[in-house]
Amino acid sequence: MHAQNELSPYFAEIDRRTDRALKGIREVRRSAKLKALPREPRAAFVGTGFLVALAAFVGLFLD
After folding, report:
1. How far apart are the C-alpha atoms of 51 and 45, rounded to whole Å?
2. What's this model's pTM, rounded to 2 decimal places?
3. Half-sphere exposure for 32 (CA within 13 Å, toward CB)
4. Residue-wise pLDDT tens for the chain (63 aa)?
């Protein structure tokens, strides 16, 4: 039982620091003024091209 009481101040300090960190995160989120970036149409083509190239590469080894 003595070992449990010995560690309780450390856990209390961890709890206080966690509460402060979470409060800071909430403040940052509340004050953030972010805008979503517009969608880039080329990104879909790049992803599709990558998949086609990957399929062709895999096809080389399946023959």
Report:
1. 10
2. 0.43
3. 9
4. 566 688 888 999 999 999 999 999 999 888 877 777 777 778 778 889 999 999 999 998 886
Q: How far is CA 36 from the centre of its chain?
A: 17
- DSSP per-residue string spanning 1-63: -HHHHHHHHHHHHHHHHHHHHHHHHHHHHHH----PPPPPHHHHHHHHHHHHHHHHHHHHHH-
Distances (CA, A) of 54 to 15, 44, 48, 51: 49, 15, 10, 5
